[in-house]
Amino acid sequence: MTTDEIKAIQTEIGAEPDRIWGEESKACCKAFLRSLCSDNPWPHQSQAAEFYGPHGTNLTRIDVTGLGVRYEGNEVLSVLCHAKVADDLLAILTEISQSPWADVLSRYAGCYNDRSMIGGNMPSMHTYGVAVDIDPDTNGMHDIWPVRATMPWGVLKIWATHGWYSLGPMAGFDAMHTQATRDCN
User: Fold this and answer.
1) Are 174 and 141 within 8 A, CB to CB?
2) What tens digit of pLDDT does each residue of 98-125 get?
3) Are strands 131-134 and 59-63 parallel, antiparallel or unpaired?
């Protein structure tokens, strides 16, 4: 993002609009996004198995035809996800598709994927079908949001209003990854 875009975010979240994304900006950003969904329906990450059940179960497909969701250039017609998040995920993807940032859906990188967390042995939230990756090329593990990562602020706010936790602003990295959990602890 540009320094002017960072300043605009800082102004909106109540941080000092100095164009430098430091600790104050991070804290204000987290508080702001959490305030967008005060009634978050999702569990803490540590309680995912209790809430969602064994990973890889209770999966369903949502029809995303016509929403502009594309994987490696090919149109995606459906997304495999957990049944508990299906309606919400469809609403989020629909809202993004109707936003000024709709093009981000053309860089969809997946939802359900039975694997461990990167760098760990715990199941990834993808194994439950409750995590979505979008635009990995410029929002990866080592791309600090919003300094180097490019995930649009408007998209992150859409996720937050539904209680989905995005690693970009909340952890400072991996902005492509958003999950239906209260946090990542």
Assistant:
1) yes
2) 999 999 999 999 999 988 787 777 889 9
3) unpaired
Tokens 């209260």 belong to which residue? 182
Structural contact between residues 185 and 45, judged by C-beta atoms closer than 8 angstroms: yes
Element containing residue 33 per DSSP (H, E): helix 23-36
Buried b (16+ CB within 10 A) or exposed e, 111-143: bbeeeeeeeeeebbbbbbbbbbbbbbeebbeeb
pTM equals 0.94
b/e map of 28-63 (b: 16 or more CB within 10 Å)?
bbbebbbeebeebebbebeebeebbeebeeeebebe
User: Which residue bears the tokens 């469809």?
Assistant: 90
Q: Give the pair of three-digit tokens for residue 123.
A: 């199941």
Task: Of 145, 159, 141, give the one whose Cα is nearest residue 105.
Answer: 159
Q: DSSP states of 42-59 as a string?
A: SPPGGGHHHHH-STT-SE
- Cα angle: 26, vertex 28, 30; to 5 degrees: 70
